[in-house]
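Can anyone check this?
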Amino acid sequence: MRLREATLHSLSIPFRESFVHGTKERATSDALIVRIVTEDGVVGHGEGLARPYVTGETASSVRQRIRDVLWPALRGTEVPDVVPMELIDVVGDLLGPSEPTPEEQRGGVIAHHAARCAVELAVLDAALRTVGRSLGDALPPRVSTVRYGGVIGLVSLDTSVRLARRVRALGLGDCKIKVGDEGSLARVRAVRETLGADVALRVDANGVWGLKEAIDEIGAMTEWGIEGVEEPLARERRHELPELIERIDVPVILDESLVTAEDARDAARFGGSVVPDLRLSKCGGVGPSLALARIARDAGQDFIIGCQVGETAILSAAGRHLAAHLADPLRVEGSYGTLLLTEDLVEHDIRFGSGGHAPLLDGPGLGVEVVEERLDRYTVDREVLR
């Protein structure tokens, strides 16, 4: 398979209602879709979402990385015809490392992971479609279904209760609630009372607390049966993590502060007191995410398969394959589809169903069929690379 052309689609898909957490409010999906065409006319799609407060990437820097580094490395390249289980490593070798230059590091870039993820998935999608195989052939599933949980943003107490009732009505087994404002404790209590004791509950501060505040808030919230606290401290305060772990009784879930393999190896020293959150776009795609999962397992850590707010079914499909292959993540987030987006990009909605359960995807490539008219309709900026 030889790659001929890539088109970068910057999207704007409205949400059904805005989503708020401690550092950001979003009302639309700002995903970047990479559409790759082979010389034989086979089309593959990939997706990444820039998060400046996570990887240091911006929408423009992601496009620049693809334009200046990743596509020149791939253009006209023959992707070897290998068995699917070897394809992820082969594509990884073609893409090369994602480390920023010293100048980029000084500008705040931690890793070019959203760019890498979008391109990696597009190449995998095209390569697998070329031979009529599924990503499930490269990532053999070890379970027959994937179960997803719910999430409640940083919203009012009344809205939190309304959404908790929805989680209950859907039969979901776990839920995450965003915290970090003055009313967080009351919201956690109200959500727990609404969910009942049989739904697992965790909180996510998105790094807005200081050490003392984190200790106090988490201590109070443990009364309401939380199973963990995500990103209580910002990345720049990670030196305070050892003291925090000693002072609280629940595991710390690391998300924004666990981006690279170096981050994962550093977190491994805490063993089961830390739970890595692995999000494909944040971690750089399938290959790097598998590597981070191996580090966590070797350290005796649980891990979560996370998602990006506003991701389309393209990225959600890849996340489902990853979750089914790894088989034992503590929790799985994502596949919200048109529960959040007013419209998704694919022919058949893959959002989870009753109980949070979702079937495995066995179609060619990532297992979803993009409706090109929708992709064009929601594109606000387009760049063709040849």
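Reply from J.R.: I decoded it. The two ends are 16 Å apart (CA to CA).
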